[in-house]
Amino acid sequence: MRQLKGEKVRKIPIPLTKTIFVLTYRTVNMIRATTKTNKVRFVCQQCGYVSPKWLGKCPDCGEWNSFVEERVTEATPASSPEREITPLPITHINILHLPRINTHLEELDRVLGGGIVPGAVILIGGPPGIGKSTLTLQVLFNLAQQGLKVLYVSGEESATQIKIRAERLKANSDELYVLTENEIENVFQAIEQTEAKVVVVDSIQTMFTSTLSSAPGSVSQVREVTALLVRLAKTANVAMFVIGHVTKEGAIAGPRMLEHMVDTVLYFEGEKGHPYRILRAVKNRFGSTNEIGVFEMGNAGLKEVKNPSEFFLSERPLNVPGSVVVPVLEGTRPILVELQALVSPSFLAMPRRTSIGIDPYRLNLLVAILEKRVGLNLGTQDIFFNVAGGVKIDEPAADLGIVTAIASSLLNKAIAPEWVFLGEVGLTGEVRAVVQSEIRLIEAQKMGFKKCILPQGNLKNLKTQPLKAIGVTKLEEAFEMLLQ
Ligand code: TYD
Ligand code: MG
Mean pLDDT, to the nearest integer, of 250-266? Predict the structure, then answer.
């Protein structure tokens, strides 16, 4: 290989058979070699907006005081003359079917769309202490047990700390390599050395490339390091899990562009003080984004929760006004969740409407329907709404459950615990059919529910009736039955 100017002397000779890595290495070196003189620019640390001079307020995202001076050795990537550029007719392209890598964590595999795609870059975001390092270490151990070479790169913790965690997880394997490093070029060298096929980078904010002089964690570094990782993943077919910190607002720190660069974005969430964790796909080039994976944090790491309905209903209070159960679909899976409403007289001119787990606009709309179509007086009431267990519902099939919970709390009448509710509510108070009602009812029956109120439109099309189903066309019909 041509020795480029300024390149570090390589310690390990590389056999010719591993040309794939040589190619990647060259890409990095080429960027290094083609650096120009130093320049100064100011980058918004919130959104990545670049300005030649300092600004108090970012014209792009509106954030105040977010510009930081960065001294850049601007890179102009050289074109590689040896590589032939030939566009192909689409009919001439052969699909390379690479089998997905199974992590043996069913909950994660489902969220990924059926396992890890070789060469995919998966960004995992989540608040500190939620279990991102734990999850990824467990995944690597599972893969190592299948005989796959894997590498865990940490820029945050020492090797001893990682070892202590691994002991807790009983994750000991000769195929599981650990590296504590912050410079991305050295990480590439380690990948080459270990021939790892799956790599975890914990975390992207602690990594830096020597081509930029800005501090690790700055927008430019995060963006550049991610770009290099993506390029390596694609050329050398190495799957990457990249851990990202989240900002106070809950988005992955760094420019939004980060999410566009990777193949999959997963968020790992959970409530403080609760052992359960939800893994949610917000972007997935290789699968659906509706799937969630549920885990429980225990003494020996994360355990899969195979039956989330049971989990979410385990602490449900019975015969209490304002509590209602609905079967929602999370991807392909029906899950029963508990909705809770608290309606109490307000002392404010503008009563409060607070919702956790459902869209606040949806809550306002349903409250207006309850006022106008059913005649409930909610204008003087504060309404607090919560979906128990930290689940987020974004399908209208839960509407009937939401309005029932609010009405039940207002009228102080408990709904009998054997009921579930299904149906979208329209502006005229009509109850509309929802998709896949049957699998939801089967799940409800499995969990011991006996009766269901659902849209008449769904009742007609049910092939089997797993539980006693009552069809309604209007909100009033449902309420007459329940709250008289
Ligand atoms: P960690 O994976 O370090 O979180 P993150 O990388 O997202 O910051 O997990 C840290 C928390 O998980 C910590 O509070 C301890 C807890 N934990 C357990 O409860 N059980 C375990 O087996 C492990 C490894 C961690
Ligand atoms: Mg961590």
Answer: 77
Is 89 inside any structural domain?
no
In this structure, are 21 and 163 located in the same domain? no
In 3D space, the residue among 248, 255, 256, 302 whose CA is nearest the CA of residue 275 turns out to be: 302
Q: Which residues surround ligand 2, an ion (CB under 5 A)?
A: 133
CA of residue 267 to ligand 1 center, whole Å: 16
Average pLDDT over residues 207-218: 85
Residue 77 falls inside a structural domain: no
The reply to whether 377 and 355 lie within a common domain is: yes
Q: How confident is the model at residue 456 (pLDDT cuts 50, 70, 90)?
A: very high
Q: Do the Cβ atoms of 432 and 457 come closer than 8 Å?
A: yes
- Indicate the number of domains in the chain: 3
Same domain, 347 and 320: yes
Q: Is the pLDDT of residue 62 over 60?
A: yes
Q: Three-state DSSP class for 200? A: strand
- Residue at 2 is within a domain: no
- Give pTM, 2 decimals: 0.75
Q: How far apart are CA 430 and CA 424, in angstroms?
A: 8
Give the tokens for residue 381. 């009431």
Q: Is 346 exposed, middle or buried (0-12, 13-18, 19+ CB in 10 A)?
A: middle
In a domain, 403, yes or no: yes
State mean pLDDT over 18-45: 57
Give the residue whose CA is nearest to atom 17 of ligand 1: 301
Mutate to test the pocket of ligand 1, among 124, 132, 133, 134 (most ligand atoms within 8 A of CB): 134
Contact by Cβ (8 Å): 296, 314: no
Q: Which of 138, 252, 297 to mutate to test the pocket of ligand 1 (most atoms within 8 A of CB)?
A: 297
Domain interval for residue 364: 310-482
Identify the pLDDT of residue 217: 82
Do residues 235 and 276 share a domain?
A: yes
More confident of the two residues 380 and 272? 380
Same-domain pairing of 251 and 129: yes
- pLDDT tens per residue, range 329-356: 887 788 999 999 999 999 999 999 999 9
Residue of the CA atom closest to atom 15 of ligand 1: 129
Q: Could you tell me the strand order of the sheet in which 35-44 lies?
A: 50-51, 35-44, 67-75
CATH code of the domain in which 353 resides: 3.30.230.10
Instruction: Decide whether any atom of ligand 1 lies within 6 Å of the 474 Cβ.
Output: no
Which residue lies with its CA nearest to atom 1 of ligand 1? 131
The per-residue pLDDT for 19 is 40
